[in-house]
Design goal:
InterPro entries: DUF6082
Helix content: over 70%
Order of helices and strands: HHHHHHH
Number of helices: 7
Keywords: Membrane, Transmembrane, Transmembrane helix
Largest sheet: none
Number of strands: 0
Shape: elongated
Number of domains: 2
Radius of gyration: 29 Å
Structural class: mainly alpha
Distance between the termini: 24 Å
Length: about 210
C-alpha cells in the first residue's frame, strides 16, 4: 500500500459557520438598538402612553426572540461539547488499545488471544486491524470522506491476507448500531467484493 492510507480530507471550515452566527447576532443587536429610532419616526415626537406601550410590547417580542436564540445557542453548545467528549473518549480508548497491541507484539506470551497463525502472519493481521481502526476514527470525526475510504480499502484488499482477514472478522468487526458506522461497513464490504477474484479466477490461481 502507498502513503494514501494516511491521506486525510481537509478539516471543514468551521470558522465560517461561527462568523455567520456572529453576524446574525450582530444583526439582531443592531435591530434592537435601531428600534427606538424607527418607532420615534413612526409615532412622532410626542410620546403618548399608547405609543410607548406599543413600543414596549414590540420590545417584548424582540426580547422573546433573542431569548429563544440564546437557548438554541446553549443547546447547540452542549451538543457540541457532548460530541467532543465522546470523540475524546474514543481517541483515548484507541490509544490504550494501540498500547496493548504493541505490548502483545513485543511480548507474544502476554497475549490472551488464541490463534493458529504463524507469528509473522498474526502480526500482519494485527497491523491491518489497526489500519482499519484508524480509518474508522478518521471517519467518525469527519476527517475522512467516502472517496478516501474507498481508495484506502481498495489498496488494502489488493492483499490476499487482508481479504481473508476481513472475510473472517468483518461481520463482527467493531459492531456498532449507528447509521454512520453502517455506512463505513458497507463501503468496506463493497471494496472487498470488488477486490475479491471471481470463483473461476480463484480456482485458476490455486
Amino acid at each position: 500500500m502507498t502513503d494514501s492510507r494516511s491521506r486525510r480530507r481537509p478539516v471543514p471550515p468551521w470558522s465560517a459557520s461561527w462568523l455567520a452566527i456572529g453576524a446574525l447576532c450582530a444583526l439582531f443587536l443592531g435591530a434592537i438598538v435601531a428600534f427606538p429610532i424607527a418607532t420615534q419616526g413612526v409615532f412622532g415626537s410626542d410620546h403618548d402612553w399608547k405609543a410607548l406601550s406599543d413600543v414596549g410590547q414590540a420590545y417584548g417580542g424582540v426580547s422573546a426572540i433573542v431569548a429563544g436564540l440564546g437557548f438554541c445557542g446553549i443547546a447547540a453548545s452542549l451538543a457540541l461539547q457532548a460530541k467532543q467528549t465522546r470523540l475524546a473518549q474514543a481517541i483515548s480508548a484507541r490509544e490504550r488499545h494501540f498500547e496493548l497491541v504493541k505490548l502483545g507484539l513485543e511480548y507474544p506470551g502476554l497475549s490472551y488471544q488464541i490463534h493458529d497463525d504463524p507469528p509473522e502472519l498474526y502480526k500482519k493481521k494485527v497491523i491491518i486491524n489497526l489500519w482499519v481502526a484508524h480509518w474508522l476514527l478518521l471517519w467518525d470525526i469527519g476527517d475522512a470522506d467516502e472517496s478516501f475510504l474507498r481508495s484506502a480499502f481498495t489498496e488494502l484488499f489488493h492483499d490476499e491476507v487482508a481479504r481473508e482477514w476481513w472475510l473472517e472478522r468483518g461481520s463482527t468487526w467493531g459492531a456498532r448500531d449507528t447509521r454512520r458506522h453502517q455506512r463505513f461497513m458497507h463501503i468496506a464490504w463493497d471494496c472487498h467484493e470488488s477486490a475479491s477474484p471471481a470463483p473461476g479466477e480463484a480456482s485458476e490461481t490455486n
